[in-house]
Amino acid sequence: MDTSASTIKLDQFLKFVGIAPTGGQAKLLIQGGDVKVNNTVETRRGRKLVSGDKVTLGGQTFEVDLENL
């Protein structure tokens, strides 16, 4: 497996799924305590996500699937 594709940073993931249009917006959402990773509030925008992680924001949950990014 290509190690560069085995993780994605939380702020990049929020941009990819369309939750945040910019990195700055993603940063504000994350640092504001609005984002949960696997049901735990995450305030580090550089948090590395792996396939199977679940990201929740505003009642919506997105499952990380690095195979299909």
From TrEMBL:
UniProt KW RNA-binding keyword: yes
InterPro entries in the cross-refs: S4_RNA-bd, S4_RNA-bd_sf
Pfam families reported in the protein's UniProt record: S4_2
Record flagged with keyword RNA-binding: yes
Boundaries of every RNA-binding S4 domain copy: 8-67
Domain of life of the source: Bacteria
Name of the featured protein: RNA-binding S4 domain-containing protein
Record organism: Brasilonema octagenarum UFV-OR1
UniProt lineage: Bacteria, Bacillati, Cyanobacteriota, Cyanophyceae, Nostocales
